[in-house]
Amino acid sequence: MESNSLFNKLSSRLEELSNLPKLDEEVSISKLVEEKGFSRREFMTWAGAMTSMLMLPASFTPLVAKAAELADRLPLVWLHMAECTGCSESLLRTATPSIDSLIFDYISLEYHETLMAAAGWQAEENLEHAIEKYKGRYILMVEGGIPHGQSDYFLTIGAHGKTGEQSAKDASQNAAAIFAIGTCSSFGGVQAAAPNPTNATALSNVTNRPVINVPGCPPSESNIVGTLFHFILYGTLPALDVYNRPKWAYGLRIHDACERRGRFDAGEFVEEFGDEGAKNGFCLYKVGCKGPYTFNNCSKQKFNQGTSWPIQAGHGCMGCSEPDFWDKMGIVHEPLGDRLYHTTFGGLGADATADKIGVGILTVTAIGIAAHAAISLVKKPKE
Ligand code: SF4
Ligand code: SF4
């Protein structure tokens, strides 16, 4: 779409949203930003970064800033299933608040078990009330894998003994958009690792509504907030990859944008944690980095207010945003090499997947991976 017509389309969408009532008259994003010690300039810098993350031209920055102002028009229901709450933590547990985390203070979080004051019967009532009152209008975010089928009782919530599976189904029914936040909700995650005694599964397997997956263990706060903003701006679902992940966030492999990529291409590898190669920032492939098989934008968005990410800190990627990563990306500290595993591309293996998805830009990588897999076979055993 031409930049001008897209600009007009997004402007009209925001105009429509601005006609909806504010859910909390007392709060405004500019007031919140000021109270937390951010200047208008910092807010606009953040809006600029969000604009570029969503792959929009810089001239769209005022629209993104306006979307932030209107973020409280869309109520959010956040359900917890079987998980560690790491995805919520990714967003909220910040030493110093980021503007991303402020957005979560600002939006109308109608239901979030770990954040709301209500408990017991009242919490259940709040959920039912929010779903009824904002029918067709609320955004549903679900964190955690979902025990289902004959084993659904492994996750039983509240005084009425409702299963997580039933809650997820009920809440999905009338949501305006549904996002599976984190790998557990997107693909089953650690909960679904073999032998999976609770029969935990992805949200998309328990509802017939379309689900957008925002995987990661955890996903970065930017990917969670960016997903919300995409919906605020467009009112439609983003372009998705084969695993229903938004392409703007999961379109590139970790390996494609890795700061150690030059070392990989030069054949400079860490052979063992703590060796000279590790001290010199060499590539972590031979100590198990799964970056060549993993689609995510961690190298660009980073974690902890953008200060660092696993590969920068010296540990390889574990492939946490891929389906069944827990079972299929192991052993953590060994390269996959040319090991074959089942993928949606017909069980051809991760290298074949990478080849098919990015054949134009990845030819060198594919050759490199094959060569380095061969090298890893002659890797010296640890002392
Ligand atoms: S193998 Fe891992 S550390 Fe090496 S370049 Fe690729 S993503 Fe980076
Ligand atoms: S670097 Fe890899 S394991 Fe770490 S968060 Fe990103 S995708 Fe997950």
TrEMBL record:
SUPFAM superfamilies: HydA/Nqo6-like (SSF56770)
GO terms assigned for molecular function: 3 iron, 4 sulfur cluster binding; 4 iron, 4 sulfur cluster binding; electron transfer activity; ferredoxin hydrogenase activity; metal ion binding
Residues annotated as domain Cytochrome-c3 hydrogenase C-terminal: 250-330
Residues the entry annotates as binding [4Fe-4S] cluster 1: C84, C87, C184, C217
Keyword Cytoplasm belongs to the record: no
Binding site for [4Fe-4S] cluster 2: H255, C258, C283, C289
Residue ranges of domain NADH:ubiquinone oxidoreductase-like 20kDa subunit in the record: 84-230
Ion transport keyword on record: no
GO biological process: anaerobic respiration
Family: Belongs to the [NiFe]/[NiFeSe] hydrogenase small subunit family.
Assembly and oligomerization: Heterodimer of a large and a small subunit.
Protein name stated in the entry: Quinone-reactive Ni/Fe-hydrogenase small chain
